Amino acid sequence: MAMEEEFIDNLYSQEEYQLLGILLQYPHKIDEVADVLEVKHFQDPQAQLIYEILLNQFQRENQISRTKLFIQLKKDGVVQSPEEMIERLTSGFNTEEELMPTIDIIKKNYQKQLLIRAARKIKELTSGSELAISEYQARAQEIIFEATNESSDLEKHIFTMEEALMESFESYLDRKHNKVDVGLRTGFMSLDNLIGGFKKSHLTVLAASTSMGKTAFAINVAKNVLKRTVPTVIVSLEMEAREIIDRMVIQEARVNGWKYNQGLTSDTEDKRISKALDNLHELPLVISDERGLNVAQIRARLRKFKSQLGELGLVVIDYLQMIHLPDNQIQNTARAVGEVVLQLRNMASELEVPIVLISQISRSFTSRQDKRPVLSDLRDSGNIEEIADGVIFLYRHAHTSAAAREKAEAEGTENKTEIIVAKQRTGQTGSVILYFDEQYICFTDPENQSLEGSIPDAGQR
Predict the structure, then answer these.
(1) Are residues 85 and 148 in the same domain?
(2) Distance (Å, rounded) from C-alpha 283 to C-alpha 442?
(3) pLDDT, tens digit (0-9, with 9 covering 90-100), for 382-419
(4) Read out DSSP for 418-459?
């Protein structure tokens, strides 16, 4: 095994010394190389040292020199025979055209090494302390993710004005001609008209105080999305999978939630339940209902689900405050929670999926006369409002006090829910009104009902 590794290292060294030789023959090429290769990408220790010296020369003087390299090698004593090393680097014949292919090989070799190191870490993991299989799987996937993610970062995203304009214009034309989905529609027309749907790679925080219906709303949105056969994942850190499906069945069958849970439905309602089961059973939904997951475990599961489903259209995580924090960060909860939100936002970008993260808000609103939530109500949970791409609050005035509920019942507005879009990185802010139907544990949109009512025989469909 050791001989095999030594042979591989020697192969890597050949390419690395060839690159250094090209640089000494064509020193004006150093700026091109410095932009795409770092010292860590070299496997041979001496090649690393020489490349580091050349980079330092370039940073100080905007150029490199073989004479100064020789002097530096002799002064530092890091190479046994500086004369022989310079001779090795400059004796071969190389052309400028060989530069980019050599860089590509070095980058490829570095990516291979990252995977080899990841495999070793996984082997060490399994020979260490006893863990649950699920924990082994999560840690192994995290190790592989780190290796592949670092290697993908080698590709830089740099655009000229012409390139950026072309990409922007092509994207605009695709949107104009409906060639791309500009946003994942929630199924509530009033909200969709305001936000244009959930955007790919965006993290949207759905926040409210207790009993405002945020989980019910998220499940409602998930069901609306699923009815369009969009692959959806719900990571539930509080409710069991059965409870989530129960709510979807109640919403779909339009039966009384209490009667359904007590088994007191009528024959007519049972027929609707049977039809709801038929409507839902083939929809592309995956639910994870294990409690106490950390971010690494959530990422591992989402990557696995994406592989199973082929793609992810929507991810719902319920909820932020139930995500397990690292033991060494518990004392500074606000900072740790902010780091969790940042990792989830990066995850949305990595998986190219909209993530809806449910969150509680602080109780600071109780002392205000206007109890509508604002972005500062999230601050006790880290810098969520700065990190998230979007923030949506749910507000039901009738649930803020006994007096408010009594007044709302008298006015017939006890189910009125204000959906407040407090932040949206790429769109409008504002609010819309939906109504919460406690009987069916779902929300209704007057604009949807108005459209349905205008369709002939809509009730028969």
Answers:
(1) yes
(2) 19
(3) 588 888 999 999 998 888 888 888 888 888 888 899 99
(4) EEEEEEETTS--EEEEEEEETTTTEEE-HHHHHHHHHSTTGG
One-letter amino acid of 91:
S
* 160 dihedral zone (left: phi>0; alpha: psi -120 to 50; beta): beta
Q: Can you give the pLDDT at residue 390?
A: 93
Whole-model pTM: value is: 0.66
- Please check whether residue 272 lies inside any domain of the structure: yes
| Domain shared by 222 and 99, yes or no | no
Residues 6+ apart with CB under 8 A from 198: 183, 184, 186, 204, 314, 354, 356, 390
Residue appearing with tokens 């609010």:
431
| Count of other CB atoms within 10 angstroms of residue 459 | 8
Per-residue exposure over 297-326, b if at least 16 CB sit within 10 Å of its own CB, e if not? bbbbbbbbbbeeeeebbbbbbbbbebbbbe
Same domain for 145 and 185, yes or no, is no
In contact, 136 and 126? CB cutoff 8 Å: yes
Distance CA 355, CA 225 (A): 13
* Better-predicted residue by pLDDT, 55 or 182: 55
User: With 50 as the cut, is the pLDDT of residue 430 above it?
Assistant: yes
Kindly report the CATH number assigned to the domain that includes residue 30.
Answer: 1.10.860.10
Enter the DSSP assignment of 203: E
- What's the CA angle centered on 431, arms 428 and 437, to 5 degrees? 135
Confidence at residue 149, expressed as pLDDT on a 0 to 100 scale: 63
Looking at the fold, whether 109 and 227 belong to one and the same domain comes out as: no
Which helix (DSSP H) or strand (DSSP E) does residue 338 occupy? Answer: helix 333-351
Question: Which residues form the domain of 412?
Answer: 181-460
Does one domain contain both 355 and 228? yes
Do 138 and 196 lie in one domain? The reply is no
Are 31 and 83 part of one and the same domain? Answer: yes
Cα dist. 413→64, 213, 302, 436 in Å?
75, 16, 40, 10
36-47, pLDDT tens digit by residue?
788 888 888 888
Q: What is the pLDDT of residue 452?
A: 52
Give bridge partners of residue 394 from the DSSP assignment: 419
* The pLDDT of residue 115 is above 70: yes
Say how far residue 284 (Cα) sits from the centre of its chain.
20
Q: What is the pLDDT of residue 2?
A: 44
**Structure confidence at residue 33 (pLDDT):** 83
DSSP secondary structure code for residue 201 in this structure:
T
